[in-house]
Amino acid sequence: MNTPHVVVVMGVAGTGKTTIGPLLAARYGVPYAEGDDFHPPANIAKMSAGTPLDDGDRWPWLDAIGEWAHGRAGLGGVVSSSALKRSYRDRLRAAAPGVVFVHLTGDRALIEDRMSHREGHFMPTALLDSQFATLQPLEPDEAGVAVEVSGSPEEITGQAVAALANLSGATS
After folding, report:
1. Listed residue (41, 37, 3, 34) closest to 17, CA to CA
2. What's this model's pTM, rounded to 2 decimal places?
């Protein structure tokens, strides 16, 4: 199975973007890029200190992800990015017009539980409320799908592949 599109795996912290993204990329046979790797050190320091990023912090990060996605246009790829606001997704689409989104969704209690068991990640559970407050789900005019994260990583990936296949022209 292959896709010429770049898929952005989005959602609040703790939904499994870093787990599902590589599984989805492997399923499609395309490269995966970890969105957190595009953050400048100042952003990571800010989040590690429990301070939410503001839009000024996010623009260079989103631009770097958009540049990667643009470079993969027609070749396919999967990248993770919280992409919580419509304006962030618009910015990604401006750089890479063909991107499609997989919005990983879930109950706050489940996500908080998952976050509390993560090791070595800079995003503290304390920032989860700000993530949910910022989240603007995909709108009907945005190319993408929402996938619930209550199953196993393999089940979630399978649901994402099936949902993307149902998007007009999303897979080949």
Report:
1. 34
2. 0.87
Band of the pLDDT at 162, cuts 50, 70, 90?
very high
pLDDT of residue 50: 78
The span from the CA of 96 to the CA of 67, in Å, is: 7
Tell me the mean pLDDT in the region 132-137. Answer: 91
Closest to 96 measured CA to CA, from 71, 128, 119: 71
Say which residue the tokens 């709108």 belong to: 139
